[in-house]
Amino acid sequence: MDEIITCQGRLLQLSDLDWLRTIIQNNPEWSRHKITKHICTEWEWRTHSGQMKTFAARSMIDKLEQRNLLELPPIRTAYRRSARPPFPTGFRVPKQEIIEKSLNKLTPLSVIIPIPDTYEDNCVGYHLNIHHYLGFNRTVGENIKYLIRDRNGNDLACLLFGSAAWKTAPRDAFIGWDKETQKENINLITNNTRFLILPHVRVPHLASHILGCIMRRIKQDWINKYAHPIHMIETFVERNLFKGTCYKAANWLCIGQTKGRSRQDRYTKLTVPTKDILLFPLTKNFRQNLCRKGALWNDLKPASNK
């Protein structure tokens, strides 16, 4: 048995599994969290901004336990933090008066990238929790939130961009990358996981205008935050709920549909709504950049002085 499991693009060999078992057996007092931190340290498992990939490591050992390949220590519920309230005490709910105007009465718009735990950050969480049909819990991995306000400071919309889908056949065929390059360069794509125009905002063409504003700046925003660019954005639109009109008006490309399976469906037993797959290339040579070996690491290198 050579290959055990693939997680975050890493192939685990039998020797890796033996090493994990030895770590657990030799350190019976370690919690699962400490085990994941040790894995990240020894395997240099970090994001491109230097943070440990503890969430990915924890997901990996949990999956190995579910397959009876590892025996982990019990979860220490006594040391768990108490549930964090969705909004801080004293949070002031933003104004939600009806805004029904032409777009030119609201522009120029303010595009805010909230600092974590600030009022603006809590506003994004509030709006998505209360008004988005998928809700909102937390962000994992590389991500950027946007809060959009009109020229009078009223909240209009919010967007969230996060990790791209690991595998999507129509997208991968459209790009033309092989399996190895896809694993290496997946972080050069981001997924627009949430886009919410607040329900009391009724402004024609606002959604496509916002998408245009974000598309013109998100590559640089990503570089500023994570020190590497992105070359394409994807999103998935549930066909039974939405038509994706604003994306198409903003020149996104519909390149196919999902197969009605969840990204968490390991055994092909779950049925989820079919979704349109829409893409927005950020650079003219996006295929070349996404299919280039070592593209991410080359982008991280400082420019040579010539």
Write the layout of secondary structure elements.
Elements: E1 3-7, E2 10-13, H1 14-26, H2 32-42, H3 54-66, E3 110-112, H4 119-131, E4 144-149, E5 155-163, H5 169-175, H6 179-185, E6 189-197, H7 206-215, H8 218-226, E7 232-238, H9 245-249, E8 253-257, E9 275-281, H10 286-291, H11 295-300
Parallel strand pairs: 6-7
Antiparallel strand pairs: 1-2, 3-4, 4-5, 5-6, 7-9, 8-9
Helix pairs in contact: 2-3
Task: Describe this structure as you would to a colleague.
This protein is an alpha+beta fold and 306 residues long. The protein has two domains: 3-76, no CATH class; 103-299, Gcn5-related N-acetyltransferase (GNAT) (Aminopeptidase, 3-Layer(aba) Sandwich), CATH 3.40.630. Helices cover 33% and strands 18% of the residues. The protein contains eleven helices and nine strands. A hairpin with a 2-residue loop joins strand 1 (3-7) and strand 2. Helix 2 (32-42) crosses helix 3. The longest helix has 13 residues, at 14-26.
